[in-house]
Amino acid sequence: MLTAVDHVQLAAPPGSEDRLRAYYAGVLGMTEIPKPPVLAARGGCWFQAGAVQLHLGVEDGFRPARKAHPGLRVTGIEAYAARLAERGAQVTWDDNLPGHRRFYSEDPVGNRLEFLEPTG
């Protein structure tokens, strides 16, 4: 029986770790968590905020997905969107999900991210 999502993995091009750290830690406010040594040798980086973990794995021939994305629930979505915009991240609002406020953004390598907050 499934009980929770442990993490979501996104791909990234080789050598992009510093840009990913700047975005996921500096812009989103997540904390980088250490990868096990055997996995750290492959590159990439992992981040956590509360129970949410995002793993960024290096992929040769990387191409960002344009439709696939993690949906990340936030509180105080207006202030969170302002935080991203103030730090130079694109914020694109979408009002097409009833009962939610949501926006999309992209990390520095082009991965699409959805941020949402229930309204009711």
Automatic annotation (TrEMBL):
Native source species: Streptomyces anandii
Q: Where is the VOC domain?
A: 4-118
**What is the superkingdom listed in this entry's lineage?**
Bacteria
Q: State what protein this is by name.
A: VOC family protein
SUPFAM superfamilies in UniProt:
Glyoxalase/Bleomycin resistance protein/Dihydroxybiphenyl dioxygenase
Database matches in Pfam families: Glyoxalase_6
